[in-house]
TrEMBL record:
One of its GO terms (molecular function) is metal ion binding. GO terms for biological process: dolichol-linked oligosaccharide biosynthetic process; GPI anchor biosynthetic process; protein O-linked glycosylation via mannose. This is Dolichol-phosphate mannosyltransferase subunit 1. It comes from Apaloderma vittatum. Its main location: endoplasmic reticulum. Pfam families: Glycos_transf_2. GO terms for cellular component: endoplasmic reticulum membrane.
Amino acid sequence: SGNNFEIIIIDDGSPDGTQEVAEQLEKIYGSDKILLRPRARKLGLGTAYIHGMKHATGNFIVIMDADLSHHPKFIPEFIRKQKEGNFDIVSGTRYKGNGGVYGWDLKRKLISRGANFITQVLLRPGASDLTGSFRLYRKEVLQKLMEKCVSKGYVFQMEMIVRARQLGYTIGEVPISFVDRVYGESKLGGNEIVSFLKGLLTLFATT
């Protein structure tokens, strides 16, 4: 790509062999390019971001799922978009341009669309996809947002964008294709939906 990069892999003791694959990649590409930073048990997405940031040496951080539901081919587009508008955040969007979702059933699509629609109406966040996690952040902006964010789970990604808008950070968007994982289960259940609604109301009351 011509960009200087490192790949930091945070694995929270997952049983799917992520760590073993990462160790093989580390041997092939070297420990300067593949940084494996495992944790003994599941401690949550927010703390994984903080853990990864501690080891990041660059000025920008791209966050993505390691199961390839987020395709690396979009990363150069994120970088181009950031340079084009000098954005603080570039967010991948499934709901704009030629973006899309593949492999989800109707229920999951409706929940995601519904969550985004309700949030757009209540919070006017200035971004079209609030629940996705494929994003590029300026490192110091990500650090500042992590200090401000309080939510966990499904609502966490949404809070990141809402807080960014509140703090006056600029957000660009790149249409992406999201392909659901072939193996493993999605973690979105009834409890997550309830916590999302609670988090949405909290943000509505405090932003």
